[in-house]
Amino acid sequence: MVDLNKILAGLRVMTEAEELEHKREQAEAEARKAQSERSWALRDSEIPITDEMRAAVVRDTLKATPALATVRQWHEAWKSGAAPVLVLVGRPGVGKGVAAAWVLSRTHRPVYLKARNLVAYHAASFGEERQRYEQAVRTELLVVDEVGTEQREAKAAIQDVLDDRIGGKRRTLLISNLSKAALLERLDERTVDRLRELGVIVELAGKSMRSGAL
Ligand SMILES: Nc1ncnc2c1ncn2[C@@H]1O[C@H](COP(=O)(O)OP(=O)(O)OP(=O)(O)O)[C@@H](O)[C@H]1O
Ligand SMILES: [Mg+2]
């Protein structure tokens, strides 16, 4: 006689196995989608990191560094009201750029600029450069690298950008190689005042992680 229970039990086992397989496929598809979104977000960014680091950002295989932990925390706390401005300062090679790439890759249409380019765009009153300035003001996430290398006379530019970006859901990440004290000395008083209100400054210790034959 046919044992119906046995057949049904067998069927259920198959269904469970199929369900597991289905879940695995779904997870893989989601991971692929997330990777392609990260790659897309980074695509136009001229952030100077190596191809190897770009790939690690996209695949989510970066090492945990203090720079990355700081940026990750800022990013994750954003929805619950983290400071809209993060200033990351630290010696060359401590991973500031890589950490910035990590958050750029997780944001819709972010903008990355070096401070001296932002200053030039800020000074333009029409044309492509003006458009670039407006894009930098409007974007949800603006990363300004090499802050403190711009001409001293141009220091009002950063302040204007911060002012123009107040309100709305906008975050700004400022990056500098200078020490915190040197950066604060370099920025003008009104910019420092804005930072006190809007931001946190995190000074990263440590040596360069760049290794090579030199
Ligand atoms: N999260 C990370 N995982 C693995 N390697 C890393 C990570 N962050 C940085 N590195 C290594 O350190 C190198 C320098 O990092 P990065 O370019 O971010 O430094 P930086 O602080 O921006 O330096 P600079 O001030 O000179 O621009 C990278 O090329 C990489 O080799
Ligand atoms: Mg860098």
Characterise this structure.
- With 214 residues, the chain is an alpha/beta fold.
- The protein contains nine helices and five strands.
- It has a single domain (51-204), classed as 3-Layer(aba) Sandwich (Rossmann fold).
- The structure holds adenosine-5'-triphosphate (ATP) and magnesium ion (MG).
- Residues 96-97 line the site of magnesium ion.
Q: Which characteristics define this entry?
A:
single chain; 214 residues; alpha/beta; Rossmann fold; elongated; binds adenosine-5'-triphosphate; binds magnesium ion
SSE map:
Layout: H1 4-43, H2 51-59, H3 66-77, E1 85-90, H4 96-104, E2 111-114, H5 115-123, H6 127-138, E3 141-145, H7 156-165, E4 171-176, H8 180-186, H9 189-198, E5 199-204
Parallel strand pairs: 1-4, 1-5, 2-3, 3-4
Helix pairs in contact: 1-2, 3-4, 5-6, 5-7
CATH architecture tag: 3-Layer(aba) Sandwich
Give me the side-by-side strand order of the main sheet.
2-3-4-1-5
Q: Could you describe the largest sheet, including whether it forms a barrel? A: 5 strands, parallel
Inertia-based shape:
elongated
Relative strand content: 5-15%
Number of strands: 5
> What is the number of helical segments per DSSP (H or I, 4+ residues)?
9
Low-confidence stretches: none
State the CATH class. Answer: Alpha Beta
- What quaternary form is this? single chain
The average pLDDT is 90
Distance from N terminus to C terminus (CA atoms, Å) equals 81 Å
- Taken together, the total number of domains comes to 1
Question: What name goes with the CATH superfamily?
Answer: P-loop containing nucleotide triphosphate hydrolases
Radius of gyration: 23 Å
Helix and strand run: HHHEHEHHEHEHHE
* Bound ligand species: adenosine-5'-triphosphate, magnesium ion
CATH topology: Rossmann fold
What is the helix content? Answer: 55-70%
